[in-house]
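REVIEWER CHECKLIST
Item 1: Sequence provided? yes
Item 2: Single chain? yes
Item 3: Sequence as submitted:
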Amino acid sequence: MSWTRGVLAVLAVCALLLTGAAGCGSGDDGGPEAGESARPVGRLLDTTDEQGRRYREVDAEQAPEVGIEVQPEDDDSWDVRLRVRDFRFSPDGTEAEAVPGRGVAHLFLDGDLLTRLRGPEYRLTADLVPRGTHQVTVRLYADDDTVWAVDGEPVESTADITASEAEPTEATGPEEIQGRTVPLRGAAR
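Item 4: Structure as written out by the authors:
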């Protein structure tokens, strides 16, 4: 009958481990409770962005990085591509907490928020970019909507783009060449 006592002893130890009564993960040793982060991510600053989101300061060695490249397309739109390092985009529905190197990117045109990005590509349509030179900025945010920052500055990158309207291609009047007036091609005679 000694084997039944051995089985009962094993079952009792398993029950203690499963319920946490043996002290494993109970939080009595100063360890984190369920739902708490093992250590806070960075330090919240009083500085905020244009929308009032606080900066989350992290060391440069732990900080994510972002670069932006904007290329014109044939349809007058712009292809925006982000290059990130030490950063991964969070899928929609991710819990609102700061996790090192994770979050979303906000895309701005001349300081105005265009969209939140959960991936490295975006198509900037021509109707959003009037004629002239503009700044396209991407900034990285943690999932709790804080701005990733290093040395008090947001982790961001900016590119300048210049949009020009199509010039008229057909003349509407005569042209003077060497003192004589000649009709332009396509102009009425």
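Item 5: Key structural point noted by reviewer: The CA atoms of residues 93 and 106 lie 17 Å apart.
Item 6: Recommendation: ____
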